[in-house]
Amino acid sequence: MSTEEMKATEGLPGDRVWWVLLTGFLFFVATLLAAAGSGADMGLVRHIPGGDFTGHLAIYGTLAFLWGRGLVGSARDLWHPGRWSGRHWMLVAFVVAEEFSQIFWIHRTFSWLDMSGNALGLWLGFGLSGCLWAETELSRPTTPGRRRA
């Protein structure tokens, strides 16, 4: 990468590995949503301790973690939703809309328990991504003339 390219990408959040992981996981989530919307038997859910709630928590927690690492890249204390940026709230809006849209699907049903699993997953994922980002960023040596974020 040239010096100009490095300067152009210096302020961008995340790095390529997190972007690749986020993109792959987004395709996985889209596939799950399409399968659930088509009425496919999601038999795996019956074998997970905690069932559907645990599945929602794990899926949306992982998505929020990867979203925070790959897209947001913020050193904020993300355990407090008042400190989330617009990019965080974009994912929250999508998750809420997706859950409420189930009211209109024949093969799906809305559930407050699922919504609480989504919310807890988002909170944990964003919080952990902020902790990991801060730990990684603060452990890097600073170069003269460059401030830490």
Question: What does this protein look like?
Answer:
- By secondary structure, the protein is mainly α.
- Helix content is 64%, strand content 0%.
- The radius of gyration is 18 Å and the shape is elongated.
- The two termini are 22 Å apart.
What attributes characterize this protein structure?
single chain, 149 residues, mainly alpha, 5 helices, 64% helix, elongated
Secondary structure: elements and pairs:
Elements: H1 3-9, H2 16-37, H3 51-72, H4 86-101, H5 112-139
Mean pLDDT: 77
Helix content: 55-70%
* Shape summary: elongated
Distance between the termini: 22 Å
Helix and strand composition category = mainly alpha
Largest sheet: none
Give the beta-strand count.
0
Give the amount of beta strand, in percent: under 5%
Order of helices and strands: HHHHH
The protein's oligomeric status is single chain
Radius of gyration: 18 Å
Runs in which pLDDT lies below 50 for 5 or more consecutive residues are: 4-14
SS field, number of helical segments: 5
Offer a concise description of the structure.
With 149 residues, the chain is mainly α. The protein contains five helices and no strands.
